Amino acid sequence: MYLFIHRKDLRTTDMRAFDYLRSKDDAGIHLLILDPALVGGGRLTSHSGRSFIGQAASLLLSYADAGKELHVLYGEPERVTEALLQAHPIEEVVVHDDYTPYARLRDERLRELARKLGRSWTPVADAPLADMTAFPAYARRSGSVPYKVFTPFYRKWNRYIAEHYGPASDIAVDDLATVREIDPAVAAAFALPEPVACALGASSGVEGTAKPSAKLDRFIRERLAAYAYNRDNYAEDATSGLARFMNAGSISVRQAYEATQGLPGAENWLRQLAWRDFFLYQAIYHEDFFRYEHLTDLSPLSDVHFEAWASGSTGIPLIDAAMTQLNRTGELPNRLRMIVAMFLTKNLLCPFTLGEQHFRLHLSDYDNAQNRGGWLWCSSLGYDAAPYFRVMNPVSQSQRYDPDGSYIRRWLPHLAHLSDKEIHRPLGGAIVDLKASRARAIDVYKTIVLAGAGDERRLMGR
């Protein structure tokens, strides 16, 4: 018997772990653990939490439709797993790899637990499009130094995908034998608390329960061909809308890749998938990816204006409209994510970690590695980030990508009476002057970034 634990793989098809389990021809317990560390702290009722719970409900339904059993328990993963290993003749624990600091620590504890109890521990890579265990050797970087810049990474990555891409699998949960009953004492000890059970049971109205394949088909049919030209036109929201499904694993990145190949617009879509892999690559191979706030002197920054930004009350129409959309819906087109993030970190001189945490709760498609990669880029930290002197101007961005101000009118209807020219401009009483705050940001971030670069050179010289 095996134990398979779902994490960021909330689907029942094209699972690398399922390929492995099918080859074993054995029955197993399939489990989803609702971890208090990940669904607690108010996240259960946040946009990101509701999206996750909705997709978990969809996963349960997919198992039921296939006539298979998925057990859902609540508790610390180590305690839940230990209880099952003690109660059942499980020989092997199988999971898909995860790369965040919390996930690494969790999995190290699970690996040690399995070893202590004499069981096998088998992690399987699934999330990246490219095989990140084989890619570094293929890339053959001098001195085995991982890539830090996206463009050369993309060139090698693109070539690797062309030569060594591993296609989606035909194996589904239908091809596996799942154990229907688990030990009653274990089921009772880790039963879902009422609020969690209610959230899971009431999630049928959440968009996350929609068929991801239908979203993918619609994107291909309506948006892919013009994707490169329209994706920044945030008023039309011409982005794919697939990130929430790929980040939670309710659709595999391979399925999204294969469905678009050879079609008009596919090349630009592929580049976005490469950015996704680039941030996963950073999470795997650069230990500083999740530690920049501890390695960089952010003392010149403060949280003075954070609440105004978070609540959409800065007096800058585009920023306030974007934050209103995010807070109300959990949605925000990528162009606006960059604009509001750069405004917070540069014009308002707030630490990127504050915005990162706000997005954690409010983004329906939240993913730790992708979210952090975006915030580091906007705040000129990390590898291949925006240069310290790049500060997006929300007025000129608004004028360029939404000339008639339809987006601002939609989310800030009290400004709808303004002319197409006036609607983009800062309001009286705006919390910062854009020109002065830009100049200040360049001075401050020049000091932060250059000091950080000096520290890195000194460390490399040791």
* pLDDT averaged residue by residue: 92
Q: Treating each run of at least 4 consecutive H or I residues as one helix, how many helices?
A: 23
CATH superfamily of the largest domain: DNA Cyclobutane Dipyrimidine Photolyase, subunit A, domain 3
Structural class: alpha/beta
Distance between the termini: 50 Å
- Strands, count: 6
Shape descriptor? globular
- How many whole angstroms does the radius of gyration measure? 23 Å
Number of domains: 3
Order of helices and strands: EHEHHEHEHEHHEHHHHHHHHHHHHHHHH
CATH topology of the largest domain, which one? DNA Cyclobutane Dipyrimidine Photolyase, subunit A, domain 3
Largest sheet: 6 strands, parallel
Give the percentage of residues in beta strands: 5-15%
Low-confidence residue ranges? 205-209, 457-462
The CATH architecture of the largest domain:
Orthogonal Bundle
Share of helical residues: 40-55%
CATH class identity of the largest domain: Mainly Alpha
